[in-house]
Amino acid sequence: MYNNYKGIIDYINSNKDLNTKVSWGTLSDYFEHVKEKEVKLPSLSGDFFTYSDREEDYWSGYYTSRPFYKNLDRVLESALRRTEILFSFARSTRLLNDLVAARQTLSLFQHHDGITGTAKPFVVDDYGARLLNAYRICNKITISAIRSLLDMDSAFTSTRSRLAFNTVEQNVVQDGAMSFVLVNTLPRDTDTVQVLAVNATSARVTSSKLGHGEIVQQIEPHIEYGRVRFNSVYAVFSAHTPSVSLQTYTLVPGAAVQPTRATLDVYNVQVAPVFHEQYYTREHTEETCEEVILGTERTGLALNCITGRLLWVLRDGVKTTTEQELLIYPGKYSGAYLFMPDGPGEDQINNTISRPRMHIVRGPLRHKAVVNFRTPVTITYTINFVEGIEGDYIDMEVLTTLKQLGDLTMRLKTNIESGDSLFTDLNGHSIQQHRYKNKLTVQGNFFPMPSTAFIQDSKTRLTLLGSEPHGAASLRSGWIEVVLDRRSNIDDLRGLGQGLNDNLPTPARLRLLVEQRIGARGQQEGEYVVEFPSLASYQAQQTLLHPLFMASKPLAGKSRKGKGRSQLMNPMPCEEELVNLRFVNEDTSLLITRKLGFTCQIPTSCTTNIYKGREELFRRSVEVEEHPMSPFHDQQRATQHPKPMQFSSYYVTFPGGEEK
Question: What pTM was estimated for this model as a whole?
Fold first, then answer.
């Protein structure tokens, strides 16, 4: 294709009688020339969503169709990014063919019938098997890189396991004394709360670099995806991990200094679980039931102990109403592509005869509430007590097991005066404003939410972050709604040829972040505005999409200890993202970064880290050559200081030097 166009261009340019000069260019080049000519062109804003091919047939269903595989795609994306980064530092080509195969699998699933969830069931099964195999390959390469970087003589295994492509990932119970490593591939230091499933209530996490008092810990019941497990417990501990680092810890099953045991409150459970007196357990009846309040003045929430609804959230002492509804939209014509509800959604919380089972866990490191609605939904709320962004949001793990027909959504009805506007991201990059239109049907007012959605007024912004894509809407001022799962028995005549009824138990991880805006004016009804996420929401999104990887191995006395190399890269400025460090060949990797665009109306505690050049990012001697993202951009253009929303790339050569 290039040679064909080049031949045409050369012919035109060499023929002076044509009075024409043709050159290669990009859209940016085109618009720069238009600007020079001062040509006034009409402007069109928006992203063309939501698409309709006829009448009221809006293609807003595929935003959420088959959410299990959308989630599995994001899991593989994160695993592949982590593998690329560690593979670049390990500089071993032994498993390069496996890495290329994992890349190809992820690319294959980006097909317009893969990630959209609109393929035939046997094709979906093939996609699932390929995704799981690629995920296992990534873990194998990651563990090989860990062994090389830490100079260990025995291999680790992941502390989480997925038995088959159509099952959820679960914690592996650690038996006995273990050595384990935490891998952080984010470009800044993080303070997180980590969990190990163990079979000893006296288990304690230690580190040779930290004293006992520096690792806050608690022992709590092992409640995973709403199920209480009686043969193991959770060892929960705080972890500080430097930017792009490997941190080693030890799990001691019979420690002399034992961690604090969490308290457990049980609601609406006829037969209280027996925990062998491991916890201080209180049973609550309807007569003793009050609002269930978790967290602190910094970050907190309240649940109705009878219905299980989320009532309000607290951030820095400011209360925001978040009346929760779980809705089913029946739709006899909805399919894999089309969302066509027959009417308004029906609240499943009110329709539930049995009250939800609730387990409330409170300890010094975190509070957790597990609400099993005995409908297709179990929601786990978690609030962590650590410094930084990890203590500012509310984690919501929503497990859906949809058996009835319809579209299942979660709606929060807040006191935020957001008007007719909803803001969602476009592929995790820019933010697009959507306005509710009365003339459209409900399905025409749902929009894609790849990872972020928020509503706001002049004082408050409420952001929902997702670990996988969803459909989202704001059907009234102050409302925000996300689609969790979909089920249909009919074909919507858009190519699948059948219904959508192969649902799987799907864990969706959402993060709820409430922030106060400073110096923002109220938005007028119908006004179009350009908005950006806050730096805090960016950081919360990154730890959601790229969580720490944990691997363990039995602690054997004869094993040779590693040399303990931990930090591989120095922190990047908080307004920059490490997109990837992609392996190219034996000596070179491609560093890809993004300069974030963020709002200044929401304060942040993140500080900017100044460095002289990209070479100073690395803890070992490297050579860095700036590389244009496009072959049409010359070297001078690539070396400009990156602007907000700009991607940059660099070739990094590892000559085999020692750490600085």
Answer: 0.90
